[in-house]
Amino acid sequence: MAERKRPDLAAMLGGLMRRLMAAEAPILDEHGLSMWGYVVLSALDDGPVRTQAALARAIGADKTRIIGTLDKLQDDGLISRDPDPADRRVRLLAITDEGRARRRATQDRIQAYEDELLARLPEGDRAAFLRAARALAE
């Protein structure tokens, strides 16, 4: 029988992801955001104005499935969706000042929790873990 060397990455990271998502849920609720709403605001805050189709590709979502999220964010005054002057069938997305403030306040709280969790690792391991996670995510 072959010796198992380590668990699969998905098995190891799955537990961590469940823990992170469980910790983020009340933070997102406190700020009136869904997970997808936070993802959309993050993408718009981190980059230039995007079309709905480009945003969907950037966040790995089906463009038809994020319409409800975009509607809610727009209704809450967190994003704007304006017709593209070059093609009125296309909507250009932009984060509003309120959307930027809400996204950043949410991110601050999420990263404070992450910092507490990462503090369980020695400092050098923390830095290496973050570098590795960034490299593997790209």
Automatic annotation (TrEMBL):
PROSITE patterns from the UniProt entry: HTH_MARR_2
- What's the name of the protein? DNA-binding MarR family transcriptional regulator
On the tree of life, the source organism's domain of life is: Bacteria
- InterPro entries associated with the record: HTH_MarR-typ, MarR/SlyA-like, WH-like_DNA-bd_sf, WH_DNA-bd_sf
Boundaries of every HTH marR-type domain copy: 6-138
Q: Keywords for this entry?
A: DNA-binding
One Pfam match: MarR_2
Does Flavoprotein show up as a keyword for this record? no
Q: What is a GO molecular function of this protein?
A: DNA binding
